[in-house]
Every structure is written in C-alpha cells, then in structure tokens.
C-alpha cells in the first residue's frame, strides 16, 4: 500500500469519509457528530493520509493537535474488502511518525466498545487508557487510549 498525505477536502478523503460515516450509522444508528474541520488536518495543525492499492483509495486516517499539545487520531478507516491485510497498522504507523515528526509528545484517540478490532489494534501498538476528553467524554461506551511518541531527533 502506498500512503500519500492528502488534504481533508480531497475527493478520495471525502469518499472514504462517507463510507466510514455509513458504517457508523450501521453500528450506532447515527454518524459521528464530533466537530471536524479541514484545517485541523493541515500543517502545522495536523496531517491526513490516504492509502492506495493499485491506485485505488482503500484506507485513510488523520491526526491533529489538541489544545493541550497532544496529537489526536481521527478517521482511521480501511474499506471492507481490504481489511485483515495490515493496512490499519500501516496507516497508524504513518500517522504516529508524522505526529512525532511534528513534535507531538503523545497521541490519543477515542473509540467505542463496539469496535473491539480497533481497540485490539491500538492495544497491540502500546496504547493504554487515558482520561476521557473531547466531544464524547460523557459517553459510557467511549474508550480513550493513548501512548507516548518518540522524541524527534
């Protein structure tokens, strides 16, 4: 898979986000309503990437700086047919490296108990519980994870 940094407004990001939101509707009955702005994922505020296989967009993810200086992961997604091939791990590694290069000391995320595969992915990468934050902080099904990033050389 080839990973390319893309603007959050890029057509491939929009198409993959629509697929992700449809998945959220299927799982939760509604799309993710947390505020997300394109400029959050533009340097120096953050980054967004799309993974391609045979020139087709099959994966995505982004991060942005929170007000406390931590990076927050958002919108990690792999299309159904491409799951189970390590693409989530590749996107996650790219995002972590990008955030570390930008100076983020730690990276955090919010997911949901209804996503055991996502929780397993993050835990296998060394993520542990962190205090709740953000839009879904009061949701009892939300899971908050984070980990230290390497210090850039």
UniProtKB/TrEMBL annotation:
Q: Which CDD domains match?
A: NAT_SF (cd04301)
Keywords attached to this entry: Acyltransferase, Transferase
Pfam family for this entry, one = Acetyltransf_1
Q: Which residues form the signal peptide?
A: none
* Superkingdom in the source lineage: Bacteria
N-acetyltransferase domain location is 3-150
Cross-referenced PROSITE patterns:
GNAT
The answer on whether this UniProt entry bears the keyword Disulfide bond reads: no
Among InterPro entries, the record links this protein to: Acyl_CoA_acyltransferase, Bact_Acetyltransf, GNAT_dom
- Annotated coiled-coil segments of the chain: none
* Alphabetized SUPFAM superfamilies for the sequence: Acyl-CoA N-acyltransferases (Nat)
MF GO annotations: acyltransferase activity, transferring groups other than amino-acyl groups
Q: What is this protein called?
A: GNAT family N-acetyltransferase
């Amino acid at each position: 898979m080839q990973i390319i940094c893309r603007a959050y407004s890029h057509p491939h990001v929009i198409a993959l986000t629509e697929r992700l939101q449809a998945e959220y509707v299927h799982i939760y009955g509604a799309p993710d309503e947390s505020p997300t702005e394109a400029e959050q994922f533009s340097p120096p505020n953050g980054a967004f990437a799309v993974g391609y296989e045979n020139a087709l967009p099959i994966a995505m993810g982004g991060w942005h700086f929170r007000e406390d200086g931590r990076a927050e992961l958002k919108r990690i997604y792999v299309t159904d047919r491409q799951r189970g091939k390590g693409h989530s791990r590749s996107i996650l590694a790219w995002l972590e490296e990008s955030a570390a290069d930008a100076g983020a000391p730690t990276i955090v995320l919010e997911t949901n108990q209804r996503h055991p595969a996502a929780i397993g992915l993050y835990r296998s990468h060394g993520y542990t519980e962190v205090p709740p934050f953000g839009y879904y902080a009061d949701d009892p099904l939300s899971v908050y994870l984070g980990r230290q990033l390497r210090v850039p050389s």
